[in-house]
């Protein structure tokens, strides 16, 4: 069995391939959410709304996405990370304070967190993966 941060992403190619697949998955899950356009692992996540949208797509009863304010970055990150921990069992790998300190989140940190979230959602049976 594959090991590592996202064992269920098919490892047929390079790290760039896995990153592209994860980015496409995030883009597909958040496509219809207002104020969210996932293009990368840094600036696209800066308001916290992309994290909220991704989690809301799995847990629509957790919070009212339409009530969120794009400028309330700290609140958005706090809501997303708490929801990920409570509902998906995702380890709190990112700190809200670290996310709001920088105008653009660190891409490696965001990527690592999204790998962990993906892994947790797969483990809960919320993301279906292709059998090898």
UniProtKB/TrEMBL annotation:
InterPro entries: CH_dom (IPR001715), CH_dom_sf (IPR036872), F-actin_Monoox_Mical (IPR050540). It comes from the Eukaryota. Keywords: Coiled coil, Phosphoprotein. SUPFAM superfamilies: Calponin-homology domain, CH-domain. Residues 16-122 form the Calponin-homology (CH) domain. Belongs to the smoothelin family. This is SMTL1 protein. It comes from Psilopogon haemacephalus.
């Amino acid at each position: 069995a594959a090991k590592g941060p996202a064992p269920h992403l098919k490892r047929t190619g390079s790290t760039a391939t896995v990153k592209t697949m994860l980015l496409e998955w995030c883009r597909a899950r958040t496509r219809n959410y207002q104020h969210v356009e996932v293009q990368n692992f840094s600036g696209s996540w800066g308001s916290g709304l992309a994290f909220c949208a991704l989690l809301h797509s799995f847990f629509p009863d957790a919070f009212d996405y339409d009530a969120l304010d794009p400028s309330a970055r700290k609140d958005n990150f706090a809501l997303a990370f708490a929801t990920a921990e409570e509902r998906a069992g995702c380890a709190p790998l990112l700190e809200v304070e670290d996310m709001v300190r920088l105008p653009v989140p660190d891409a490696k940190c965001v990527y690592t967190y999204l790998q962990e979230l993906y892994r947790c959602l797969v483990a809960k049976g919320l993301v279906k993966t292709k059998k090898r």
